[in-house]
Amino acid sequence: MDSDDLGLFGPGSVTWKVHAEPILIVAGLRSLYLQALHPRAMAGVAQNSNYRTDAWGRLVRTATYVATTVYGTTAEAEEAGRRLRRLHARLRATDPVTGEQFRIDDPDLLRWVHVAEVESFLDTARRAGLPLTPAEVDGYYSEQRRAAALVGLDPADVPGTAAEVADYYRAVQPELRMTREAAETAVFLTAPPLPWNLSLPVRLGVTLGPPRWAYLGIAGTALALLPAWARRMYGGLGLPTTALSADLTVRGLRLALAALPQRWLEGPLQQAAMERAARVTGAPPAS
């Protein structure tokens, strides 16, 4: 029964531990900066979406998908995956360099987006101060192979440990570069048109209207949290001091978010998952 279904992960999973962190708002932006460095992935987005005119709608849809895979029931997660696979199967794009047409659901592209996303979630949470053992780090990557399967990837072909993710990044770097589309996207991500009342459904269940300087600070932190090799592609020096500054900033932001009432920081899907877990385990829901 759905009332007893704890989804793909459930309480006790590293995935629930990581995704309970409100700081993943910053991780989502970091992931987008990183993904933009893949020319075909960037071309696929630019040629098949209206992200410039519907940036916040796209953010809502992406956040809802991630929350569903993490906190939804198994049936909800699998249905979300089926919808995404059907959408991707219809889409094509043209390589900006070779002119070759390619499928959006090409496994190499799906793998890049998956790794950039989950590594961003994990790296941001750890650098913000979430304590994780090396076994938990590998456990998170292994668990996230279930999410990779939802988009159509063979889990066996997806990095499942920290070492495998590092190897994957080394192998894919020759394919990455700063293209015109990547540069335009980075500028857009750093200074997008902000609505008067900005809803942050990734984690916050409330409506906030942050001033532009606050968003610029978050975007700058997300960019600084990128791996040194990625920061260099964006024109930075990749200095250790940049990473240290980003660590201090993201730790401070995590502490600030922790001071807010927890009910503000949990979306409806997470709240429903906590209630199901409490019924199944007999433990009181987190407060």
Automatic annotation (TrEMBL):
<dbReference type="InterPro" id="IPR018713">
    <property type="entry name" value="MPAB/Lcp_cat_dom"/>
</dbReference>
<protein>
    <submittedName>
        <fullName>DUF2236 domain-containing protein</fullName>
    </submittedName>
</protein>
<dbReference type="Pfam" id="PF09995">
    <property type="entry name" value="MPAB_Lcp_cat"/>
</dbReference>
<feature type="domain" description="ER-bound oxygenase mpaB/mpaB'/Rubber oxygenase catalytic">
    <location>
        <begin position="16"/>
        <end position="251"/>
    </location>
</feature>
<dbReference type="GO" id="GO:0016491">
    <property type="term" value="F:oxidoreductase activity"/>
</dbReference>
